[in-house]
UniProtKB/TrEMBL annotation:
Protein name: Pyridoxal phosphate homeostasis protein
Cleaved signal peptide residues: none
Coiled coil feature spans: none
Record function comment: Pyridoxal 5'-phosphate (PLP)-binding protein, which is involved in PLP homeostasis.
Domain Alanine racemase N-terminal residue range list: 12-230
Organism field: Zhongshania aliphaticivorans
Cofactor requirement: pyridoxal 5'-phosphate
Modified residues (N6-(pyridoxal phosphate)lysine): 39
Higher taxonomy: Bacteria, Pseudomonadati, Pseudomonadota, Gammaproteobacteria, Cellvibrionales
Family, per entry: Belongs to the pyridoxal phosphate-binding protein YggS/PROSC family.
Pfam family, one: Ala_racemase_N
Amino acid sequence: MTATNTIVSNIAAIQARIAAAHYLFCPSAPQATLMAVSKTRSAKEIQLALSAGIQHIGENYLQEALAKQAELQNNAICWHFIGPVQSNKTRDIAEHFSWVHSVDRAKIISRLNDQRPSQLAPLNICLQVNINDEASKAGATIEEIPALAELVLNQPRLRLRGLMAIPANTRDPAQQRRNFAAVRELLHTLRQRFPRAQLDTLSMGMSGDMEAAIAEGATILRIGSDIFGPRAAAKPD
Ligand SMILES: *Cc1c(COP(=O)(O)O)cnc(C)c1O
């Protein structure tokens, strides 16, 4: 099989895995959206993913993403920013993305709101929660999330959609499910506290833990290596 149709057949295989996991764990829930995470991948590789039906693309590094967006401007793509957000990047993120999944502090929230262009729809926001409280990981603590949620809900140019998490790395499916269940429960407490908010999103599940995430209610799966193949070392922005 050539590299070209590997991406296409990988996506078909993942869609089958998603359908199977739904059938097994949550047959009545709407099927989770498959986002292709294309950090370090070329515009050509993204185009192959689009040809296989992908509409949502996730990028981690701003400059790399902007270059690919320019190359792919004639395609219908919903762009998601999923990497660390530094203050000096918020203007470009607010202008060039539909979603940001990696919001974890107040300063970033107010900058994204102030810099979201008025002719665009409000920017969709997921708060990133550091669900296992790992020192090495980004994300707000569980305790910080409600106040950050209230802050996002008070910004007219932002729309709070839910939570994003990258749990502690484990191959144990039971532990994966416990971690994702904690994210789901946190979203539930936010819904009770902010009943009028449109909190419909759990952005969780990567190549190694997608099925466990679906079992716990994931609505957006962020899949990189199972679509595009193993990555070379991450590059700095
Ligand atoms: C790279 C990345 C992914 C995809 O991870 P894979 O294991 O390659 O599927 C998902 N989410 C975030 C935030 C990432 O940085």
